[in-house]
Structure formats: structure tokens, C-alpha cells
Design a protein that fits this description.
This protein is mainly beta and 320 residues long. It has two domains: 183 residues, no CATH class; 117 residues, Immunoglobulin-like (Sandwich). Helices cover 4% and strands 44% of the residues. The protein has two helices and 22 strands. The strands form four sheets. Strands 1, 2, 5, 6, 7, 9, 10, 12 and 13 form a nine-stranded mixed sheet that branches. Strands 16, 17, 18, 19, 21 and 22 form a six-stranded antiparallel sheet that branches. Strands 4-3-8-11 form a four-stranded antiparallel sheet, with no helix packed on it. A hairpin with a 4-residue loop joins strand 5 and strand 6. The longest helix has 7 residues. The two termini are 19 Å apart.
Length: 320
């Protein structure tokens, strides 16, 4: 990514500096104006503001948490100004390619990520968002003039598979101000089945969610709510892992072909959530970065010899 930095001349800081307008442009590359007068300042840490501003010589990183994965968003074009100890101000402008021109290099979230939490080390005053379908070109995006609606403070961002998301953050503070563009993408939904287990076990009201994901294990949270299960639901210790490769789920190779699972039945209580710690070190080893799903077989037991089974999945991601 080519980035051109230009250091502006130090400006004499006037008393009571205000903030740029919070209306967002419709495409990447536009910049928020410099402060003029008045305006609400973004939160500043309790330590001395000028000293803190010196550490923010560029916009903060954006962390995106969704679908059991956490990624640092790609940062593109930005303008940034900050005060110096002597009362002057320094400004920096950085330009970059459009995120659609570098889409393959954007951080990837799993296809089942329904909502994303956006976290900045220094909270912006305003956040705007737009998205495009994967494969859209920068030229097509410019012609569509996509609007960037504002995301309310603390609001989760709704996600869809196969999308590229651009975040425009604006800061308005007496210590530092400016704007920056960030981007990430979501994986395409696999074409050979459901992306998660919700539809497969919907009749029984059973869903799985992956949490606290690492390369060697995760916490599997199983919830039963509603549905029409006419018996006792339970599962065992056995599970299987698959990886999404070119939009298709492929089994993760076993370290050893002979796997012995403990004969234990875990009850899935009605209208409750249970959590199972899952470690696959001795089954699959350490997973490489990518998008995976873990499957569990669920049993509906009515009487001896009278039972049904369904498979339910939870999708998760391993990131660098």
C-alpha cells in the first residue's frame, strides 16, 4: 500500500479549538475540515491531555470483534492534527488506495459473523459505515455514490457474508482531531451447506456459538430455546473440524487416524445455555489462520431404540 505523508507547517493553536463537521462524505479519500470554533470534545484520558496527544501522532487502530474472531482493520486515507507542548499544532495527511483496490489484503471475518463490535483506543466522536459486495471495483463504487449512514455510539455493526466494509471515523477534541478510513471484509458463505448450525437444528431449538477462540481450542456455548423437541436432548464428547477452502468445507486432517472418544453423555437442558471447553491439540494440533466450523451431533432421546440425531455447527476464525 503506497502511502504519501506530508508534514504540514506547525500552526499557532488558538484558544478554544473546535471540531470538524460530522457529516461524512460518500467515498474514501475525502477529509474532515480542521477545527474552527466550539463543539463537544471527544473523551480525553485523565492524564495530562497535551502529553497524551503527543502519543496520538496518527489515528488509533480499530479492532473489530465478530463471530469469535478479532482483527485489526486495514487503515487507509487519513488526516490528523495534534497539539504540541509549546501550544502549536502539527498536522499529517496520508493517502492510500481505495480498499476495493486492495480487497484481497483486507482482514477477514468469518461468514457467520452477524454483528461486529468496533473498538478504538481513543473513541471517535462520530462513526460512519458503508459496504459493498465482494468483487465491486472502486470505479463502480464511485459511480454508485454509496451513502455512509452514521453508527450510533456503542451500536454493533450488522454484518453479511461476502461484503467489504468501510468505516469512517471522525475525532473532535481539543488535543487531537481529524478523520480516518478503515476497512475489513467478511468471508463468502460456503456453497455446500448452511454457514452455521442454526437451520439444521432449528426444529429442536439448539444453536452453537464459538467463544474464546485460540489455535488449539475454544469454548463451545450450546443454547436450547423454543423448538419442538419431544424428548431429552444430549450430545457426547466427539466433535469434528472443517476448514473453508475456496468457499467449500473441507475436513481438517487428523493427527492420528485412531481417535478414542470418552463415552460421556452431556445433557442439553431446556431453555438454558451450557458451555463446553474444547481442546483439539491431540486431535488436530494447532490450526493455521483461516475460517473453520466445529460440528457436534445432537441426540433427541425418547426411549430405548427411539431417538433421532442432527448435526449442528458453529463457525469461527483463527487469525494471525
Amino acid at each position: 500500500m503506497k502511502r504519501i505523508l506530508s508534514l504540514l507547517l506547525a500552526l499557532l493553536l488558538l484558544a478554544g479549538c473546535a471540531s470538524p463537521a460530522t457529516e461524512s462524505p460518500g467515498s474514501a479519500g475525502a477529509s474532515a475540515p480542521a477545527p474552527e470554533d466550539g463543539g463537544d470534545a471527544a473523551p480525553v484520558p485523565e492524564e495530562d491531555g497535551a502529553a497524551y496527544a503527543e502519543t496520538l501522532t496518527e489515528p488509533p487502530a480499530l479492532t473489530v470483534d465478530a463471530g469469535g474472531a478479532s482483527v485489526t482493520a486495514w487503515r487507509g486515507t487519513y488526516t490528523w492534527s495534534y497539539t504540541n507542548d509549546d501550544g502549536t499544532a502539527t498536522g499529517v495527511t496520508a493517502d492510500s488506495v481505495h480498499p476495493l483496490d486492495d480487497a484481497d489484503q483486507l482482514p477477514l471475518l468469518p461468514a457467520n459473523a452477524a454483528e461486529a463490535a468496533l473498538t478504538f483506543s481513543f473513541h471517535p466522536t462520530s462513526v460512519f459505515v458503508c459496504s459493498w459486495t465482494a468483487g465491486t471495483t472502486a470505479e463502480e463504487a464511485a459511480l454508485s455514490d454509496t451513502a455512509m449512514p452514521e453508527l450510533a455510539n456503542g451500536e454493533a455493526l450488522s454484518l453479511q457474508p461476502g461484503q467489504i466494509y468501510e468505516i469512517h471515523a471522525v475525532w473532535e477534541s481539543d488535543w487531537c482531531w481529524g478523520d480516518a478510513y478503515y476497512a475489513f471484509r467478511t468471508e463468502d458463505a460456503p456453497t455446500d451447506g448452511v454457514a452455521d448450525g442454526a437451520d439444521e437444528a432449528a426444529a429442536w431449538g439448539v444453536t452453537l456459538a464459538a467463544e474464546d477462540v485460540t489455535a488449539t481450542g475454544l469454548t463451545l456455548r450450546c443454547t436450547q430455546s423454543g423448538g419442538s423437541a419431544d424428548g431429552e436432548l444430549h450430545t457426547g464428547t466427539e466433535f469434528a473440524l472443517e476448514q473453508s477452502v475456496d468457499g467449500q468445507w473441507q475436513p481438517v486432517p487428523l493427527l492420528n487416524g485412531d481417535i478414542c472418544w470418552d463415552s460421556v453423555a452431556w445433557i442439553i437442558p431446556a431453555d438454558e445455555t451450557v458451555a463446553w471447553e474444547t481442546d483439539w491439540t491431540h486431535v488436530y494440533g494447532e490450526l493455521a489462520p483461516g475460517t473453520y466450523r466445529i460440528s457436534k451431533e445432537i441426540f433427541l432421546y425418547r426411549a430405548p431404540g427411539d431417538y433421532d440425531t442432527r448435526t449442528v455447527w458453529a463457525v469461527f476464525a483463527i487469525v494471525d
